[in-house]
Amino acid sequence: MPKILISTSSFNVENNKHIETLKNNGFEILLNPYGRRLTEAEVIQLLQDDVVGIIAGVEPLTRYVLTAAKNLKVISRCGIGMNSVDIEATQELNISVFNTPDAPSVAVAELTLGIILNLLRKIAEVDHNIRAGNWKALMGNLLAAQTVGIIGYGRIGKKVAQLLHAFGAKVIVYDKQEPSNYSMDEVLTQADIVTLHIPYETSSHHLINAEKLALMKSDAILINTSRGGLIDEAALFSAIKSGNLGGAGLDSFEEEPYKGELISLPQIVLTAHMGSYAKEARMLMEQEAAQNLVKGLQDKGLI
């Protein structure tokens, strides 16, 4: 019996009509047994010889993994980013690849705004203090008074800008793919808040390093709800610890689950790579990912 692997850490298979289509066409559905991001070895183990399609999370679908998956024909990413998939290898191996670029955009943008407000008004910090028995109001800042720099002006970047404009913030933008009035260094220098909305690529590894952090205002805030690896986390820790940067909000990390030294800094808000984890967005994304998989299998003549 041909099989489909759903490798995302969670997936609602019960209310997905496209999963039912797969079952009705004789496919067995395999789920991620670990409830977390899979390692390369675990993906290889789960991509058995009779797995022909995968609804993928952010696990590494490297050339090594894809070569080992002898019968894999279709990859359907449940999400936007494709940096976890070796696209060149999929083309050589004739594996079709899909993603869901629209569904998560609002959810990621809203989380970005939530983290910004949290940091500006010190919500998490005060909550922690109260639970520790320390009742003290902390002075914050108005979002309406901030200049926010957006690096990466695709679907999510544009949605973030829309939300920021509603609060009255000034928005400046840099995107290497689109004409803009600012260079990246100008955005880093001028903005009170910088938020990253770009894919991770080899060329963008540690895009925000010690040199770039030194350009930012000493009370500025850095946000990353995009991909781990864009920020040099050691340099970020040093900048905040030394008082050369005001704070940060991170939803993605180089290694996850994250257990590093940034945890010790109260000026940082950390979330568990949950940008798309809004119920409505997640449902739409899962439906779209399953629909893409069905289409891919149909194109391959397997349905």
Could you give the order of the helices and strands?
Answer: EHEHEHEHEHHEHEHEHEHEEH
- Helix count, per DSSP? 11
User: How confident overall, as mean pLDDT?
Assistant: 95
Question: How are the strands of the biggest sheet laid out side by side?
Answer: 7-6-8-9-10-11
Most strands sheet: 6 strands, parallel
Give the name of the CATH superfamily of the largest domain. Answer: NAD(P)-binding Rossmann-like Domain
- State the helical fraction: 25-40%
The domain tally reads 2
Please, could you describe this protein's structure?
This protein has helices spanning 17-24, 40-46, 63-68, 87-92, 105-121, 123-131, 155-167, 184-190, 210-213, 233-241, 279-299, and strands at residues 3-6, 28-31, 51-56, 74-77, 96-98, 147-151, 170-174, 193-196, 221-224, 247-250, 268-270. The chain has a six-stranded parallel β-sheet with strand order 7-6-8-9-10-11, sandwiched between helices. 43% of the residues are buried. By secondary structure, it is α/β, with parallel strands linked by helices. The model has no long low-confidence stretch (mean pLDDT 95). It starts with a strand and ends with a helix. The protein has eleven helices and eleven strands. It folds into two domains: 3-101 and 279-299, Rossmann fold, CATH 3.40.50; 105-270, NAD(P)-binding Rossmann-like Domain (Rossmann fold, 3-Layer(aba) Sandwich), CATH 3.40.50.
